[in-house]
Batch of 2 targets.
Target 1
Amino acid sequence: MKRLTDVAAPVALLVLLLAIWEGATWLLDVPHYILPAPSRIAGTFISHFPSLFHHAVATLAEIVLGLLLGGLGGFALAVAVFYSPVLERALYPLIVASQMIPVFAIAPLLIVWMGYGLWPKATVAALIGFFPIVVNASDGLRSPSEESVELFRSLGATRRQIFTKLRFPASLPTLFAGMKVAVTLCVVGATIGEWVGAHRGLGYLMLQSNALLRVDLVFAAILMLSILGLLLFGAVRIIERRALRWRDIS
Amino acid sequence: MSSRAIAVRGVAKSFAETHVLNSVTFDVKTGTWATILGPSGCGKTTLLRILTGLLDPDAGDVVVGFAPGLTGCAAYLPQRDTLLPWRTALDNATLASEIEGRPRAEARAEAVELFAHFGLAGFEDRFPSQLSGGMRQRLSLIRTFLARRDVLLLDEPLGALDPLTRATLQDWLLLVWTEFRKTILLVTHDVEEALLLSDRVLVMTERPASIALDTPVELRRPRDRASADLAAEKGKLLQMLLGGGR
């Protein structure tokens, strides 16, 4: 019963909003190149699906690569900062400051440095995505109690064993929380990367369609991007459930 | 049987401004059970951490087992729950052998045997969150046993349990001790528990702590919680605690 309302509530709200949108464009006679009706967008989505899919594959590759780079980089930074107080003092202000720089300012530079391919987009995605991972993984690495660490030391565990058998598994719940935030950020990052310069991808398609006043295609691309984001988020959740099986049982 | 498993000589320890241990001296004979009684916050845990090798004393000597002051001579059960929530009961129990690098199959077989022996059979694959408080504590104790050390240092292992579970686990601990004949140093603030379980009771003073009283428990085993002898001993000990504790 609970599951049903979980699904029904958001679907009902979405249907209601779409109905208002559809009715408003029809009643107010809004031109489709200003704001197309949902039905028109749906039609475009279906008729242009092969093209949308073609572009989605490119964007997906950028997001996944960006997430991997950001995830590994972010986790490595968190470990480095955890084990070295000097690095922590040196790096933390820089890490926080890096989030104040608008990605739009760096993205063109990355194109200059790395060319038009996959890498600059993945880098933009990684640059936004790594921050929640660093913050969450740091918290996770710190989470084991002093008693747990002492228990390990009393058993003669090496620093490496304390990391692999205690700190790393203890950091997984917050690491996954960071990954879930990072996924959504990477979707935005990859799109921004494409806006600055690309010949393929959903962000590129949006920009091109906008220039041609194909607003319906812009919305279709946004819809495709949302679907992509949801699928990736779902994938991270599935991996999380697998890895943290112990948390769901109680 | 008369050799010493633990020897503590004039051990002192301070943290910054706090003088925790003044001068602590006592011995524990191999295979016997000694219990440290004392008010909360008197430095009992500090003493255990020194015995485990986690802390160095400011002054004095500590010998546990045969090597002086070495980490890993004693199996330590910390006061707070330290079971790893992401490991199954069996994987928690075999933690020590895993750290030592013993063959996994051998360690697991040994653990399974202990599970069966101590009433946790069938719970090997459960996670700690699926176990009751008493079972978790039993699992922690099995883990401590499986560290295969001759000396066990137990820091208020039954402190957080309800009276019934506590009594059950006291009996169980006795059973385990009788069977394995390890040297046990137990820390508790429960006078009855000390008398029921141990060969000797050491009373610690408030901070800066020293041993105020070191007395053998003359009650014959098996002891009975409800017996008049135990009640009389408890009365005597309490009187000494209240009178000469400082």
Target 2
Amino acid sequence: MNARFDRAPHAARHLALLLLAALAPLWTAAGARAQDLLVQCKTLVVAPDTVVTPGELLVRDGKVAHVGPEIPAEARTRARTVVFADATIVPAFVLAHSTLGRDGDLVERRTALTPGLRAADAFDPFGDELKRLPRLGIGSCALAPGSGNVAGGLAALVKPGAAMGAVAREASYSKLALAAPARNPERQPTALMGAIDLLRQSLRAARADQKGDPDLQALASVLRGERRAFVHADTRAEILAVLALAKEFGIEPVLLGAGDATDLVEAIAQARAAVALWPLQPAMRDEVLRLPQTLETRGVPFCFVGEPGELRAAAALAVRYGTSRRAALAAITRTPAEFCGAADAVGSLRRGCDADFAAFQGDPLDLGSRLLAVYVGGVQLFGEAPKAPPATPDITRKDSL
Amino acid sequence: MRPTISGPVLHALSCALLFATAPAQEPEPGQAPPSRPAGEAKPSEDKAAPGNAAAPAAPRERTIAIHAAHIHPIAGADVENGIVLIRGDRIAAVGADGAVAVPADAETVTFAQGHVYPGLVDAASDAFTDDAVRAETLDAGAALADGLRRRGDREDAIVRAGITTVYVGGRGNPWSGQGAIVRPTADGFAPFPGHEHAAVGMRLAAGAAETHALQRQQLIETVFRAFAELDDYKKKLDEHQKALEKYKKDFADYLAWHEKKNGKAGADKPADASPPANAGNGGGAREGQDAQPGARGGQRGGRGRRGGGDGERPPQTPAPSPTPAPQGPGDGKPADAKPAEAKPADKATEKTGEKPGDKPAEKPAEDKAPERPKYPKAPPREPSKDALLEVLDGKLPLRVEVVRPDEIRAVLAAARDRKVPSLVLENVLGGAAIAADLASASVPCVLTAVWPGTRPEAFAAFDALQLPSALLAAGVPFAIASGSGRRAGALPLMAACAVGAGLDEAQALRAITLTPAEILGVQKDVGSLQTGKLADVLVCDRPLLRSDCRVLAVWSAGATAYQTEEPR
């Protein structure tokens, strides 16, 4: 009996120790987060049109607190400093459309209209594809419904993390499709005509909806301009149909794919539409490889989407075929962030944005520039530990490209 | 003994038919190819006469001095503010401004901020082939050079990208025929003389489908069995060769007997006395039907053509029962027949059943005409086996496309077992895992997958971008190649990808210039900016591996192949 009484305090002590051991990392992590992070580099690209040389970035609570000369001296001294001496730091890339290898779980095939479904519900925070993003320089990604439905649902902006990923925006853009995958011989629509009509009827219903139907309200938010609509359209007929619907309902769509847009750039510009291009490939036709340059010239916003591993190479190929470096960098940072309705958080390194950045040995659009490190939310998810800080940083110049 | 008549003549005819532009005579190995094959269309900018190298007595050669801020010779240190001097189709000098003597009549071209490189060498491409050739299984005897098309949909972009030498291969599985080295031009291509048959290709990559490793190895072993099946064929060829030698000797004796009998030793031979000319080439029924094993590879113009003759019929068959008549003066030149020996007599005695020593003085042996020797029947020729014999002789490299490490290992083992002296591996995506094996086997690799992107799950473990660094660390020579004519424009970006994954930039540049030239065996002519090499020169507005690099001008063998219209 005594022994039983003796064991009880032991058990309590063990429990207390276990609790302490379990909570210690959290406490330590909270303490680490509390300390500011001062990142120094040769060149800091705050946004494609804003470059700071030499670059400095103060990270506080996972967000950009100050940039360059704006960093208070007091904060500078208290912060933990990391140095990427010869590196160029750019906003971590934003991938505006991906299924992260979950194609099958992001299409409800029984019906063609599921505009209210949320891709966030199918998000796997431990997915291998998600873990792969940091070593490709990608800090955030829109998990999008597939193109198997005319109205597939709402995309979610997700981010990789040290232990697991997280949803940054639950309801980003609305995913629509007129392309071939949306036409299914086993249910309506089976043809492009039917798909166009179905989408038109849905948009009309959404415009007239007074009952707050979740599906229709998801479309109504597009009509109200609260979120963008990504419309998968590959062929000329599909693109023209999207442009006609855009004019009819007063929306500014993002054409997803748009491989045949080479002849329709003027019409796209007039409709104030944007384009999300599949990654450029070296084997593509010259006119397709030069499409980004044409879009840039005509002032059509564009970004690259699709396979994460090809994102940076697609931008580099666009540069090879005439696109300016500024537009190519925007196409994988700021522009996709805008399309996702998250330009206030990702795609640039302005004050208040998430501290998602990538350090490259040189210009990120030169494929010979090695990726050194990637931070997401101020936490390093890829790369070697940076070097010790230099004696005194010299912030002398801030200019624009 | 090499054929003396049919070889060069028929080869020239063959090449003329094949390319319509090929030179009339194949150069010796190592001999520099001419600047431009006769009749080859050349860019309109080129004011020089074509084929200057074929006309050594030309009054003057065009001389061009290219001044540029940065010259990257690849072989040797970079030169700042230098000059590349071109004379005719060759590089006359490379050096710093002031160190190179520029002739007064030289054309001067200046690129104040330009970067000058040697013309790029793409060591694996499907350019100029059509879809059927790409997909079809072509045995080792089928030569792609016979069926290349002049111009496809994007081939004109190849030379605009600065690529001046391309190895063109098939994609057939498991055999993909014989690849050719060509020189892309603005309006097509020209053959690389002497390298129309550059390698025998095989494709032993099982693909991404789930297959058992042992099954893949079994397939490789089965395909390589073709080399083991050459023994009988080679034996027949050797026997035929011996029979030919004997025939030649017997016929000479036969001629000598008649000449001696007619009392005109050294005079004209009988009207049918032509066999010695073809006795050495197996009947020479067709060009490319060379019966001498030792002469394989010397008659590449006709090798590999399908449906060749069987070589049974000598071109000039002597009359069935020759009765050499007294010949008048001026009927021809004396043959190089040896003086009559005792052999015809011996044959005569054998025929009658008498022993030679029985009655030596009673009946002179000269009285009995020796039997005319019968031309030996040649074994049927098989171009595929001829090509494989050339591979075993080391005259043609064997190029094998493989992906997985187990495939690579199996091919290395099979090639070692079959004693293939020259092996080149292509693709080699999974090669990093067995780089040491590749190094110990001294097998060069042509990497065609150095580009980021999704790969099938079976290949997900292979890092295409890290592969060049891994091979370099192990000491494996490697080239980075486009693998496709449609991807040729991105060749420098592929090299840049390797740099981004840790490869030294100089090594990356070498991997698209000099190393592929070495792998293709054309390093004496291309691959670097060195005196005496072909004047293949690429000028860019900034370093080649940068994404925004623009090609300003390309010279191919001294002729302007491309020049930008943008101001430089």
